[in-house]
Amino acid sequence: MSYLTLAIGSGRTANKAMKLLSKAGIEFPDFHNNSRKLVIFDEKKRLKLIFVKAVDLPTYVEKGAADVGIIGKDTIMEERPDVYELLDLDVSKCKVVVAGFADREYETAKSLTVASKYPEITKAFFEEKGIRIETIKLNGSIELAPLIGMSDVIVDIVETGTTLKQNGLIILDEIADVSARLIVNKASYATKTNQIQQFINEIKEVLE
Ligand code: PRP
């Protein structure tokens, strides 16, 4: 039986995903927190794990370079990959929010400059609200943008709320609750159905 290739986004989801796999009895002897290895196998050689940049993960799964992937719902909402989303892993729970200063006009604004690493989510949300926006796409430290006058508000994920608080920003609107999801390449699901279903069942058991 050939192995399944599982993509994991390096960063905040990776450690939580590794813990979940370990709970399910799937161990990776070569995994260490500060390891720089990008490809590792589980001890039974059923899974080949590849670590990829989170924002690229949907592409790896959509193109079939990985059969399955574990990725935040925020990235799925932004990238809209043509894949199956089969399981909510109930870890890495965050909110996608609009944040900014408490004392500035928001609800009544006709136009806003918004900094975000999620331009598609931002566009859809403000279109619905009928607010005209200019989006500034950034790749990190989004909270800095309103502090230095580069944007009126930001669209970003909040987990503990510490980053907002320490920078004097508050949540102005909530867009979505997000968590880590299991996504599956469509062709792989057709050709490796049993393997993928068995993997999903093993994970499901530890979620219950
Ligand atoms: C994310 C997000 C916020 C922060 C929120 O950034 O963009 O900045 O985490 O977490 P908190 O509510 O627990 O403070 P990340 O750590 O991924 O780094 P980045 O700024 O480089 O994107």
Automatic annotation (TrEMBL):
GO molecular function ontology, one term from the record: ATP phosphoribosyltransferase activity
Record SUPFAM superfamilies: Periplasmic binding protein-like II
Pfam families, per database record: HisG
Predominant cellular place of this UniProt entry's protein: cytoplasm
Reaction(s) this enzyme catalyzes, per UniProt: 1-(5-phospho-beta-D-ribosyl)-ATP + diphosphate = 5-phospho-alpha-D-ribose 1-diphosphate + ATP
Database matches in CDD domains: PBP2_HisGs (cd13595)
Domain of life from the UniProt record: Bacteria
TM spans (from-to): none
Role noted for this protein: Catalyzes the condensation of ATP and 5-phosphoribose 1-diphosphate to form N'-(5'-phosphoribosyl)-ATP (PR-ATP). Has a crucial role in the pathway because the rate of histidine biosynthesis seems to be controlled primarily by regulation of HisG enzymatic activity.
HAMAP family reported for this sequence: HisG_Short (MF_01018)
Quaternary structure, from the entry: Heteromultimer composed of HisG and HisZ subunits.
Protein name as catalogued: ATP phosphoribosyltransferase
Native organism: Sporosarcina siberiensis
Phylogenetic classification of the source organism: Bacteria, Bacillati, Bacillota, Bacilli, Bacillales
